[in-house]
Design brief:
The protein is mainly α and 53 residues long. The chain has a domain at 20-53. The protein contains three helices and no strands. It has helices spanning 2-15, 24-32, 40-51. It is elongated, with a radius of gyration of 15 Å.
C-alpha cells in the first residue's frame, strides 16, 4: 500500500511540471528551447498560440 501511494505521488509531481500548451509559461519555455529540437506539433502549436494570438 505504501508503494502505491509513493507511485501516485510521484506521478502527480511529474505531470504537474509541464505548463499547458498555449499558456504564457509554455511559450516562454519553448522560446528557450533550441529551434532545431522542436517537434512539428510544437512548432505548429507555437505559431497558433504564441505568434497569432
Amino acid at each position: 500500500m505504501n508503494k502505491l501511494l509513493t507511485l501516485i505521488a510521484a506521478l502527480m509531481l511529474l505531470t504537474a511540471c509541464s505548463p499547458e500548451v498555449g499558456s504564457k509559461a509554455w511559450c516562454e519555455q519553448l522560446q528557450a528551447k533550441p529551434k532545431g529540437d522542436w517537434t512539428a506539433n510544437e512548432a505548429a502549436d507555437y505559431a497558433k498560440n504564441c505568434l497569432f494570438k
